[in-house]
Amino acid sequence: MVSFNILVAVALLYVALLFGVAFYAERRAARGFGGWLYSPIVYTLSLSIYCTAWTFYGAVGYAARSGLEFVTIYLGPTLVVVGWWWVLRRLVRIGRTQRITSIADLISSRFGKSTQLGVIVTILAVVAATPYIALQLQSVTLSFAVFAEAGGAFWGEDELNGAAIAVAIGLATFTVLFGTRNLDANERHHGIVMAIAVEAVVKLLALLAVGIFVVWGVAGGPTQILQQIDASPIAHWDQNGARWISLIFVSGAAFICLPRMFQVLVVENVDERHLNIAGWAFPAYLMLMSLFVVPIAVVGLAILPAGANPDLFVLTVPLSEGQSGLAMFSFLGGFSSATSMVIVSTIALATMVSNHIVVPIWLNARAGAGAKMSGDVRSVILLSRRFSIAGVLALGYLYYRVSGGGTALAAIGLVSFSGAIQVLPSLIGGIFWRGATRVGAALGLITGFSVWSWTLFLPSIGTGAIISDAVMLYGPFGHSWLRPEALFGIAGIDPLVHGIMWSMILNAFLFFIGSVFSFPTPLERLQGAQFVNVFDYSAGSSNWRASAADAEDLLIMSQRIMGGTEAQGFFQREAAAQGKAGYLPDVTIEFVSLLERELAGSVGAATAHAMVGQLTEGSGVSVEDLIAVADEAAQILEYSNQLEAKSAEQERTARALRDANEKLTALSVQKDAFLSQISHELRTPMTSIRSFSEILRDGEMTADAQWRYAGIIHDETLRLTRLLDDLLDLSVLANGQVTLQDQSGDLRSLITRAVDVAGGEDSKLRVLRDPSAEAIVLRTDLDRLGQVFINLIANARKYCDAVTPTLSIKVRRVSGDYVIDFVDNGSGVQIKNQQVIFEKFSRVSDQSKAGGAGLGLAICREIMHRLGGEISYLPGQGGAAFRVVLPRAAILANR
Amino acid sequence: MAKRVLLIEDEPNIIEAISFILSRDGWTVHAHENGETAMAKVNAFPPDLIILDVMLPGRSGFDILRDLRAQAATAATPVMMLTARGQAKDRELAKRLGANHFMIKPFSNADVRDHVRALMEA
Amino acid sequence: MTGPSKTSVFLARNAYHKRRMRDLARAVPLFGAVLLSFPLLWPRGEGGAANSGAVVYIFVVWIVLILAAAGISRAVKSDDPLRAQRDQS
Fold first, then answer.
1. CATH of the domain spanning A4-403, picked from 1.10.3370.10, 2.60.40.420, 2.60.120.10, 1.20.1730.10
2. What average pLDDT score do residues A693-709 get?
3. In angstroms, rounded to a whole number, what is the distance separating the alpha carbons of residues B15 and B55?
4. Where do the CATH 1.10.287.130 domains begin and end in chain A?
5. Which of A304, A385, B28, C33 is 20 to 30 A removed from A28 (C-alpha atoms)?
6. What is the pTM of this model?
7. Contacts of A715 in chain B (CB under 8 A)
8. Which of B18, B105, B108 to mutate: most A Cβ within 10 Å?
């Protein structure tokens, strides 16, 4: 028989071993030899804090009472972990990119870094976890009692309470030592994770050992154990379907929502790929933990006296068989289960309490002084965490005392689970639905929390403790529809299913309605987009406008939070990244965002945002934020456009065909019009030629008339030739078949030559020029450019209807280009005609007298196009005005 | 008294040629070069026959023809259309609007003279 | 030169296969949920289904889920973008 003192000594030795493991792991991590610390196996084992004393002791008791129902608690997480591709992968990615420190931080950060939501989730988490921590204390205490009784002593209430308080203090000490040693950037606790991994192995081996002993040592083999099941009080399948499905749902949801699970799943995760292994290894762990539960239960029921507490079968069965060594091992397994859960749970809760309640209050109290005032933020945070740890454990102890520790373990565990999962709608909504808002989340959380408290939590403390029997039976103040176990008068549902159903339904409903009917702030929308699209966004958010914040102030503040060396290291790295020496980088938006995220790793997003906000003046949303939100809107728009586009596809095809048809028709009409124009232009001179040559042939006229008619024929022949030349020219230019000459010369002589050719000596047209402005050396096809000038000058000569026709040729620079304006003092071109003068055959006035066929300007346009320049009509110059823009490449020098 | 021909045409050389041909045949020829003012000219100087070009500055010959046929004074005045665009649809349009003859440029002098004679006698 | 084209066909097949494996990874919990709801159809109470059989059924389903997850995990593993990049270069 193991004496009680030996048991205590073994327990202390075991704790010392855990200390050693944690210390060693911290040392290795600090020296950078992470190595196996970062292996997926350690990650998987750390998840095993899901299996607490409730599993280790409670599962067997649960099975002894309700048959196979206990297995739902492990099937839910199995489904969630096997389906890690759905939710866990996304959570872990978000946690890593946004440097999330707790589930309260996740909710707060997602909904616009809201302090209020952080507070709500923190309170909810503390309230929900308290019974569960009490449960752990109770189970460790009871297991001590079992050994004490086996040693002949009987433990009364005083001894139990004393043991509970000793366990609570011991756990608080361990947690404070390893949980708040440092406030490192990523809030990871290598020592604790390693210790938990060791405990995970111990508890699994212990339960397996007891199971193997029971199956092969007591029952005599698997076949016999199956027969023994058939002979036991739980021989028949008797599972309530609503409970079965509700419990699978609750346990699966709790696996994600429990603060301690979030801590190991997301916060302590060092590598996303570990999920890949944990995806099958953790379900295997759960399966092994559950494997011998039913055998132990049926054997316990068979061999122990009728009044024995089934929650302690794991200890009492080996003890009754005289296997004290095995019982000791089993005790260590249960001890491991309870301690690992309490340690992680208190760390997670303490982080939340300190980041979301203590620090904001402290900051507010000192708001006048700003965040860089005297006082060490770092020590405040560490201190607040230590007190939070002690506080959480004290609450657990208090609950243990108040509830009397008598209730079945399983019931307490389920109440706690169903409280924790009130976060589920906001969590899932927040990471999958952009439309989720802070108002919706707050409404859902508060509603779910209230309904849960009323229907499950308060009744769980014990009938008559807080809610009187009368209220349970007839509702508060006689409002029977508010009865805790029959809301809205719907009675007869299993109380647990009833509470879960109503709290989840009302929670989700108000979350949804609240989100739909409220409008998010820009920061909320930005965070929403980053959370929901976490796999698309790799870059972080830039949440700050460039501000007057002083890099030095930021450094002072960061040193207080991160510690001197780390803060200086961070600032120096960032300064170097900006190409600066020293410790003070420029306070850019990127830098401030990065710093905020770094700080968020220690104190949570909302607090970091508030602290940086004090220094960067105002927690305003930057233009970049708005742009990001606009981007989001654009994406949505694009998406809806794509949908529309698909539905409009058919119509568009039809329209394209119609367009093509119209284009063809228009082309053919144009061709007809062009041919008809050419026909007209050719036939007109030919008419004169034919007519006068017939007249000449007829004879009978004066020599004068003869001379005159021959002259007409001659002129009309020239006109025909000119027309044909123009047509050919235009066709060559328009088809791009023209070969441009590479010539250079100066603009002044080019214009002079053009004036000579176009004006003629008999011309009345006066030409005004500014030779100094024309001093430009050109390199282009000068003949073609000259042709344009000649055309424009000739037009002025032909059409300028002023009494003393004058043409000014002005060379100037307009926005970097050299332009030449040809402006005459005539009546100009009517506005309606300005559009068409460059078209072929567009004779807008009575040009035929002047012998033009309306091709000149069309040719000019083609030439300028070929040369790389432009020609256009310049309205509002008091006469006809044309602007020639010289091709840039043509300018060699401006003398 | 010599019968009067009004020639509405914008090409000076063609005016000169037709004037020469018809004067030689004994007609009095008046020329008008603008489409817009053509109707005023017709009403101020009612001709016995009109030779009307299609492409005129300001107004198309077809429009003028429609106006001529619309007013009682000129509804029966013989009109000979001239055009440099010898398309079938122009000919059809001229016929429908009530032109008595349709001639395509370039024409033979004899043709012009013969048709004017024929229209005057009819 | 059929070499390069063969490679690209192979890569496309590979990527396609991985994508289907991801679909499978998403489907496993759904199949699991259906399989674990089956026992609700069994007769209950005295004269109902034997719990010994139920234990065997549930643990067999559990093991199948674990094996499926492990198999898919191996198939999806090489999906790591870093490794994919390394493989390409």
1. 1.20.1730.10
2. 86
3. 14
4. 634-734
5. A385
6. 0.61
7. 13
8. B105
